[in-house]
Write a structure and sequence with these properties.
Rossmann fold, about 45% helix, 5-stranded parallel sheet, 6 helices, about 180 residues
Amino acid sequence: MKEKLLLHTCCAPCSIYIISKLAQGYDLTVYYFNPNIFPEEEYLKRLAEVKEFCQRKKIKHIEADYTSKEWFKQIEGYEHEPERGQRCDLCFNYRLGNVAKYAKDNGFDWFTTSLTSGRQKNSFKVMEAARKAENKFEVKFLAIDFKKNFGTQINDWLSQQMDLYRQEYCGCLFSIRK
């Protein structure tokens, strides 16, 4: 029997290769928890792509509540931080804490995240936040830097082949390119 793995994903283009790869060795469920994404229309576009891909691949998926007001409370006072600064650290802590809690509460053996595949993400900081969540909620974190071994490039190529919606910014209000 395969171990249960909860994969947090931010969007389909960053995770399609990861989903395909992890589904081979785990009982995989994709978890979409992204209260940082702004505006809500962007959140819904990204969610629709994730759902469609999971349905096509017959992968279970779960949509968490869109708790953007709570997310804004988590990063309050850090709105003017640069991309990859302390605001992002707080965001990783909040989101991955939620993922680990969900994994623990719902009987998953492991959790991981596609955030390490993003070009604008510091994989070390993402994994640091995940390790904190792992310790707090006592559920194992599958530590893989999905940028390595051309993971980002494979995601890019696959998403172009599938003509997936590709966003122009990381996701939060503060990362929107002017």
